[in-house]
């Protein structure tokens, strides 16, 4: 399992209605970060602030400047510290990563999915709620 290379596939794949935010997250945005709250309509996130229609791309996803000697585009999140839990917890399962074309998955992960899942769970331990 590779570390995230910021390919942006997860953000691009789920930004058009595939994400949700808790009531608490939305309330916190309304109080502490109204710029994010502008993109919430009827409890749904990443809605156009004017038309209230679902955006097809996360408004907070930004293409990072190309680094010298790097061919691939990298993406960053302008609300990384305030992003929804859905974003914080991704990726959750190896099958989900394969389906989404996640570039963290390596060939050996496909050969040993149980071990790959253990590696993923360890890698993501700081991003997910504790089970205890």
Description:
The chain is mostly helical and 132 residues long. It has one domain (9-123). The chain is 36% helix and 8% strand. The strands form two sheets. The protein has a two-stranded antiparallel sheet with strand order 1-2. Strands 3-4 form a two-stranded antiparallel ribbon. A hairpin with a 2-residue loop joins strand 1 (40-41) and strand 2 (44-45). The protein is globular.
List keywords for this structure.
132 residues, mainly alpha, two-stranded antiparallel sheet, two-stranded antiparallel ribbon, 7 helices
Structure summary:
The protein is mainly alpha-helical and 132 residues long.
What is this structure's SSE topology?
Layout: H1 9-14, H2 23-32, H3 34-37, E1 40-41, E2 44-45, E3 61-63, E4 75-77, H4 85-89, H5 94-100, H6 107-111, H7 113-123
Antiparallel strand pairs: 1-2, 3-4
- Gap between N and C termini, in Å? 25 Å
Number of helices: 7
**How many domains comprise the coordinates?**
1
Largest sheet features = 2 strands, antiparallel
Spatial extent as radius of gyration: 16 Å
Biggest β-sheet: strands ordered side by side in the sheet: 1-2
Can you write the helix and strand succession as a string?
A: HHHEEEEHHHH
